[in-house]
Structures are given as structure tokens and as C-alpha cells.
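Changelog note: in this version the structure field was regenerated for every chain. One regenerated record is shown below for reference.
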Amino acid sequence: MRLLSLGLLCALTACASSPPREPAVAAPPVPAAAIKQPSEHTGTIAGAPWRLDVPVNWNGELVVYFRGYAPQEQPLPEVMPLTGYEGWMLSAGFAVAQSDYSARGWSVAEGLADSEALRKHVMGLLGAPMRTWAVGHSMGAHIVLGTLEQHGAAYDGGLALCGVNAPSEELFSGPVLGALAVFADRHPGVLSPGGLFDADVPRWPDAAKIEAALASDEAFAARFGQAFGIPREGMAGGLMLRFAVLHELRERAGGVPVDNTRVTYSGLGNDAALNARVRRYAGEPSAVAYANARLQLTGATASPVVLMANVADEVVPSQTSSRYLDLARKAGRGDQVFELPPIGSGHCQFPPESQAAALAKLRAWVIERKHPGQAPR
């Protein structure tokens, strides 16, 4: 069974209000034509490793790429390597700038600030690009949306792929904690000997034990997967990652950062008995406030954004990936967000050509005013 790659985040997901639009960035002293093609550039800004790659026959446009979740156990590199996600963008002629962020874990606030600092720094290397695009996967897509809300004037548009596209308070107290609490109720002791937030519990539970419990109870696994939008393939890895992210967030917040005392779970069989029995966790106010303030998505994007999810995703349920469109409509920005049909199975498992096609649709929307939903003539 395929388990989740730890380099990507759980659906898991930064504080975006509706700030005034930024003034246009002044052209730096170094002209774009002066930069070597191809070339790579690396460095560190305020503790965040970064890199910029310029391809042969650069098309004059810049993609700022936002990476997904990286476990706290993974050290920051002295020199940021290629991530493996930039290949299709470089092949299409885009220069790609990316920050490895100054922190691991659910580092959405750091990721937003570090990537904006990098974008400004890159202006001194490239000059003013013809256009600038924000592209991110998973947690990185969450940061893309926050960036477009806070710094949208600096970007022509954004592409949020397999994204954790919901506000943190919804995400963590809802589908993340809910899936863990219900699974722990059915299979006590598998995720942790006691409660989900016991201090002495290892951050990463044993995925093999989770899978064994699911395999012994396939009827429950089917109901559970349908209720929480988690496909059976990869379910154990998805639960493992949810548990680890929630524990890491608790450590950051200094207390229990979620609350399910008023949540009602449904679609799992005897729901009344489940809701009377399932363990409830009362969030500590300061910890909940910390988690919610990391980056508060509002839907008020200042630039066009295209969303694209996977058909089956063990980390980010489809309702989470689609949530930003609802937020944008409520914020009066629904015409600025378009959701493409889902493609591919497994978290962020997109064929390269589908990602390139999604970016092409975003560019056509911005440059040619051809809406992504417009039927071809």
C-alpha cells in the first residue's frame, strides 16, 4: 500500500485581511537581459534557504513556488536543492524562485513572509519580470492564497494545487481532529495509548499498526473514508500525517490548539452513540488563537487564482480543496477564483502536463481574458 510522502502536507494546512494594494515594484538596477541563461542562484534570507533557477530561453516571466509541508525532524539545508516540482515550469521557460522557509512543520506564516522577502530579492537579480505567478502544492497552496490576499498586487495570478484551501480554524478542529478522534474511538490505543494529545506520545504513530487496524475492520474503513473524504488507498498514511501535524501544532501553540466539544459527527453508523462516546477535546484559548492566527484565509484574493485538486486524496479531502471558492464568493471575489476538474489519484499526484495546462489556463485568463471555464471554439 502506498503511504504518504512526508515532504508534503496534510491537508494541512496561514492572516489575510483585505489590505490596500501595493504600489508597483520599481525596476531594480540590474536589467533582466543581463542574467545568465541558464543559471542557478542560491542563498539565505533571514534564516530561510532559497534558490532561483533561470532556464535557457527564459520567457521573461517568474514563478514563485511555495513548497508543502516538511516535518520538523528534517533539517534545513545549507544550500537549497531542487525540489523536483520545478522541472515542468523550467521546461516551459519560466524562471522559478522558491524559499525553503525559515521553519519546518506547519510554517504557513513563515512561508508567506520568507517567500515575499525572496520575491523582492529576486527583483535585484532578474529585473522586473514581464509577469509573476504564485504556484504551490498542498500547504504551499494555502500560502499561495494567503499571499494573493496580502500581496496580490505583486502577482498576476496564482495556481493552488492539491491545496489546503480552508481557514485553519475549520481545518484543524474539523476534518483533521475529527478523523483522528473517530478513528481513536473505534481503535483505541493505535494512535496513542491514551488521549491524542498525551505529551509523551511519539509525534509519528506507526502507519503499519494503523493499516492493520483498518484492514481488520474494512466495513468501518469504508464508512470512515466516505464520512471524512479519505480514500482507502493511503488512508493509514493520511491519518499518520494528520496526527503528526496536530502534535507539531500543539508544540508550537503551547497547548491544545483545537476544539471539538460542539462538533457532531455523522455518516458512521450509529451516530448518536458515537457522538455520546467519542472523546472531546476543549482547546486552550491561547493555543487556539495562535493556530487560527497563523494565516487567516478570507477569500479576498486580489488576483485571479485557479484551483486544481486530485480525484482521490488521502491528505486533502475534496471539500477542503474546494473551500476557497466558497470563501471568495462570500467575500465578493467569486469571479476571481476558478476550480478546474480534479485529476490524478493520490496527494499531489498530477501528471506534469496537467499542471502545465492549469498554468496555461491561468495565463490565458489573465493575458487574453479567456476565462478557464470558457468552452473552446
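Spot check on this record: Confidence is low (pLDDT under 50) at residues 1-31. The CA atoms of residues 1 and 233 lie 7 Å apart.
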